[in-house]
Specification:
253 residues; mainly alpha; Arc Repressor Mutant, subunit A; 2 domains; 11 helices
């Protein structure tokens, strides 16, 4: 198949798709055609498309679950103004829990609590599971058979990662003051409360969320949490527009 025609087909498919597509899934679209491109030809077309979009407002991005077209981060400020609602702000408790799972998986809830020095809110685990950021990997072979948690492809996709190796190393962590305002932590509000608060500080957060015990987290997990926030800083903007059908159909974000 002629390369330009193949690129146009793949572009149309990715624009119309509501999810990321793998090379195998793209190849399956040509099963009924007499002129069927090979996987190598599809990969070549995708590579050329990445170069073609360098001067465009959107890009071809490869994440854990495949390829997708998305708005470039530098334009997210204007795209985000299409929505009036504010994105959820994640508490330090949720980010620390997520960081421990991401960097130290497989890990049990008890091990998370041991490192953090506080009990983990049931609502935090529930939120992470509902967002499909974590999943149950199994059960540890110790008395009580505690659940082992790990990250998912959806977690990698959300943070624009292809694999866990792309998470920043501790040496790459930046100061918390540089973190995007959408991930700012309301320290004063939490200090005034009886605990660390709910995991998501928006109006839709459950009113009966179980708060963590007001005990200081151990310093050894701060680097992991800040590392995850560093990744979030570079990806959160790209998800402001995630729920819009109109932009999905235009840019597949």
């Amino acid at each position: 198949m002629e390369i330009n025609k193949l690129k146009n087909i793949l572009e149309a498919v990715l624009l119309a798709s509501e999810r990321s597509l793998t090379v195998v899934q793209m190849e399956a679209l040509f099963e009924l055609d007499e002129e069927r491109p090979t996987r190598d030809e599809i990969r070549q077309a995708l590579h050329e498309m990445e170069d073609d979009y360098q001067a465009r407002g959107y890009e071809l991005k490869q994440v854990a679950s495949g390829y997708r077209l998305q708005v470039k981060q530098e334009f997210s400020t204007w795209v985000g103004r299409l929505w009036e609602e504010k994105p959820a702000r994640y508490t330090r408790a949720l980010l620390e829990t997520m960081a421990l799972i991401a960097y130290r998986q497989p890990i049990t809830r008890g091990e998370i609590e041991e490192v953090r020095g506080v009990s983990v809110s049931s609502n935090i685990i529930k939120t992470l599971l509902e967002r499909d950021w974590i999943k149950v990997l199994g059960h540890k072979d110790v008395p009580g058979k505690p659940t082992l948690y790990g990250t998912t492809k959806e977690f990698l996709d959300y943070f624009n990662l292809k694999k866990l190796d792309e998470l920043p190393t501790l040496a790459e962590i930046r100061d918390l003051d540089s973190i995007h305002p959408e991930l700012e932590l309301d320290e004063d509000a939490r200090d005034a409360s009886t605990g660390e608060g709910s995991d998501v500080s928006d109006d839709d957060a459950p009113k009966d969320a179980i708060a963590d015990e007001p005990v200081d987290a151990k310093p050894e997990i701060e680097d992991d949490a800040e590392a995850l926030e560093t990744v979030a800083e570079t990806s959160e903007d790209a998800h402001d527009e995630e729920d819009s059908t109109s932009v999905r159909s235009a840019f597949n974000v």
